[in-house]
Amino acid sequence: MRPPFPFVRDVAGLRARSFDLLVIGGGIYGAWAAMDAAQRGLSVALIEQNDWGSGTSQSSSKLIHGGLRYLEHYKFGLVQHSLRERRVLSRIAPHLVRPLDFMLPVFKASRAGPFMLSCGLTLYDLMAGLSPPVRRHRYYRPKRVRQDFPFLDGAGLVGAFRYGDCQEDDARMALVVAAAAHGFGAVCANGVRAVSIAAGDHPQVAVEADGASFTIKARAVLNAAGPWAMRLMGEAAPEVELIKGTHMVMPAIPGVRAAFLLTAEDGRVFFVIPWYGRTLVGTTEKTIARVEDATPTEDEIDYLLRALATAMPGLGWARSDVISAFAGTRTLQKADAESLSAVSREFAVIEPQPNVWVSVGGKYTTARCDAAGIVDSMAARLDNHQPSRTDVTPLPGAPTLPFQVWLGSARAQLLVAGVDAEAAFTCALRHGTGVDALLVLIESDRALAQRVHPDAPFIRAEVALAQSHEMARSEQDVLRRRMPLHLIVGG
Ligand SMILES: Cc1cc2nc3c(=O)[nH]c(=O)nc-3n(C[C@H](O)[C@H](O)[C@H](O)COP(=O)(O)OP(=O)(O)OC[C@H]3O[C@@H](n4cnc5c(N)ncnc54)[C@H](O)[C@@H]3O)c2cc1C
């Protein structure tokens, strides 16, 4: 195994040979599938038309969660599966998947009363198994809720529950998993676009990269191009529905570290989530015809602002407080799409053409396990019946020391090197043991310990590292995905 970083773009390597598996799409599904297959000893190529995690995988709510609201639809299997994966991801990537408390206020008019919610949350805790990464749920009386969160709508408030889930930086997670695939020998390149797929006994994929066209040969092809996937399938494309979800980024709510699960006036739930010293608010849900339509609209921002003003009137936030907004697209199999909110985010892998598989739908939370299933379904074709081991393989940057011990020491080293306290904390979580590479850079130039922007906890050494070790090729790659600077300061 080679080190995952430096994560090297290898376009020449894609031309040089034929592969067992070619994965199209460097979102979280393509990245996990490539890592899993490469770890099983298969020769793997992973291509991404733009940048790692630049599709849906940078536009999620950034939660690694069981999906509490699916309990309401009796999707017990899905919730339990997601909670199991939450535990796996927290174990193999404790630096990237962090616990987050959620507050769930209850009102006289709420669909479910305190007793029902208490039963649901007890079940949620039980399904999370022994030693979950988060705290068990707890009930708060209305007086305490008003005192701690005075900005919440107090009319009809009968209390609130606190429960636990986890949070991530989605684009960073996709990058790290793709780099792990590289570590296990996959030939990876961003900026390589699949143009067409010729299925058959020996599938071939025509690609374009750096102004040149060539063909990649493989025994099997996985089309993990997310909402773009069907474009490559022609007549063989299964029917899917594209559902856009928009989030807006707002200032921090002073002194509040918990997220909120709230209900808008139309009965839809939405999240208010602290993230990198800002607040994510989302999401909307709307069917779109083309993936290009997945941009936030004024109507969606107005909807979210109205929902927020009703649920949290004390914040007094207006349009001028919106820092940025982003939208992503879920792909649902047509049969699943009749009721958007009620539908499970279940996943399918299909083989509509010989030796060409397509992944449809899914969740960040379950992508690792779903990808293991994808590679399993190709076992006969690839003559490889090894089991998946990604559930017990620490991701790049995962410390071997007990997490809090390691975190304390990593922060201390960054502080000594001149990084400010907030940036040291986020650096440690974003890079894990990779902070060593940042410290080496800072040692050679102390100015690299300074922030890139005064209002964002990212340092100049991270920009240098993104270019030299993380395959960043453009300003967007660096300032939107290697660090989400554009999201949290706008621009
Ligand atoms: C609004 C929203 C919120 C969500 N929130 C959560 C959440 O909080 N938690 C959770 O668990 N899940 C969440 N999800 C689901 C999760 O984000 C998705 O399941 C996941 O990101 C899908 O990843 P993917 O790899 O299938 O697709 P994508 O991330 O879209 O990856 C596909 C990749 O393929 C590339 N590509 C496309 N065409 C080509 C081509 N021709 N050649 C080469 N490359 C190509 C694209 O550039 C893209 O990078 C959310 C989804 C949405 C839409």
Please describe what this structure looks like:
By secondary structure, this protein is an alpha+beta fold. It folds into three domains: 11-57 and 171-238 and 344-392, FAD/NAD(P)-binding domain (3-Layer(bba) Sandwich); 81-168 and 241-336, 2-Layer Sandwich (D-Amino Acid Oxidase, Chain A, domain 2), CATH 3.30.9; 403-489, no CATH class. It has 15 helices and 20 strands. It has helices spanning 11-16, 28-39, 76-92, 114-127, 142-148, 170-183, 298-311, 367-377, 379-382, 403-416, 421-431, 435-444, 460-469, 475-482, 485-489; strands at 18-24, 44-48, 63-64, 98-107, 138-140, 157-167, 187-190, 192-198, 204-209, 212-223, 240-250, 259-263, 269-275, 278-282, 286-288, 324-333, 347-353, 356-361, 451-453, 456-459. The strands form three sheets. Strands 3, 4, 5, 6, 11, 12, 13, 14, 15 and 16 form a ten-stranded mixed sheet that branches. The protein is globular, with a radius of gyration of 22 Å. The two termini are 40 Å apart. The chain binds flavin-adenine dinucleotide. Residues 24-30, 47-50, 54-57, 59-63, 193-194, 224-228, 232, 245, 283, 328-330, 359, 362-365 line the site of flavin-adenine dinucleotide.
Describe the structure in brief.
This protein has 491 residues and is an alpha+beta fold. The protein has helices spanning 11-16, 28-39, 76-92, 114-127, 142-148, 170-183, 298-311, 367-377, 379-382, 403-416, 421-431, 435-444, 460-469, 475-482, 485-489, and strands at residues 18-24, 44-48, 63-64, 98-107, 138-140, 157-167, 187-190, 192-198, 204-209, 212-223, 240-250, 259-263, 269-275, 278-282, 286-288, 324-333, 347-353, 356-361, 451-453, 456-459. It folds into three domains: 11-57 and 171-238 and 344-392, FAD/NAD(P)-binding domain (3-Layer(bba) Sandwich), CATH 3.50.50.60; 81-168 and 241-336, D-Amino Acid Oxidase, subunit A, domain 2 (D-Amino Acid Oxidase, Chain A, domain 2, 2-Layer Sandwich); 403-489, no CATH class.
